Structure formats: structure tokens, C-alpha cells
Amino acid sequence: xxxxxELRVTRPRVAVLSAVHDHPHADxxxxxxxxxxxxxxxxxxxxxxxxxxxxxxxxxxRIQPMGSVARYEARVGDNHHHIVCRSCETIYDVDCxxxxxxxxxxxxxxxxxxxxxxxxxxxxxxxxxxxSDPDKPEPERNSGD
Length: 145
Ligand SMILES: [Zn+2]
Ligand SMILES: [Zn+2]
Fold this sequence. Notes:
Blueprint: H1 11-22, E1 26-27, H2 28-38, H3 44-56, E2 61-63, E3 71-73, E4 81-85, E5 91-94, E6 120-123
Parallel strand pairs: 4-6
Antiparallel strand pairs: 1-3, 2-3, 4-5
Helix pairs in contact: 1-2, 1-3
The structure holds zinc ion (2 copies).
One zinc ion (ZN) binds next to loops.
């Protein structure tokens, strides 16, 4: 992958790519921890620099849901979207229902040639949503008055 992107193959680059591959949507701290499993002496700055370089050549995708730190993933180029839990910030990939960007038609494009619609689905994951388990009996509601 690095060679195709015409980047020199260095150990930090390989370690960062495989860390992001193993930990999709990880934040920088998590990636640094994983990289240090392979390269114990790598500096924060080196990992930041590699993340920036790999993102700029398109080998990594950087996502930053509102209120979250930047996160990285190795799944690039397929216009997939994300679903984010408002409570615990769990993130999952969601395949685009349309396929190719932009997957939403602007009601007024203002003359722009639009190449992407950024979609993030927000909600509560099954662990955080109250009463989300269909097998669980409804809690008895006491009207109380
Ligand atoms: Zn959650
Ligand atoms: Zn993703």
C-alpha cells in the first residue's frame, strides 16, 4: 500500500497502518499505544506525522464526529458512513445506501459541483438505549397519581 502511494516504506509507517487496520476508528492515543507494541520507542510526534502523511495520500481516512477527537480508519475510498452513539461514542461503519458520492441531492446546489455529502447517523447504541432489549419484559409503569 505504501509503495503504491509512492511513500517510502518505513517501520513507523508500517506500524501505524497496521495499528489503524487492527483498530478501526481509533483515536490517536489508542494508535500510539498499539504502535508502541511493535516499536516501543516511537515518539508521539512521529505517530502524528505518519498519520498526517498517510491521510494526505489517502491511505487513511480521518473522521471527527462532532464533540469527538479525530479518529482514523484504513477503510478508504468506498463512501461509507458512520453511526455514532451519543452516549458512549461507539462508532460503526454503515455502507452507503446509494454507493457513490454524493449520495444526497442538495435541494439547491448554489451552482456548486458537489462531490460529497458527509453523513453521520447519531443515536443510542443497544447498550446505551433504555428498554432496547425486545426480550426484556416492559418495566411495569405505575401511573403514580
Ligand atoms: Zn452507546
Ligand atoms: Zn469507518
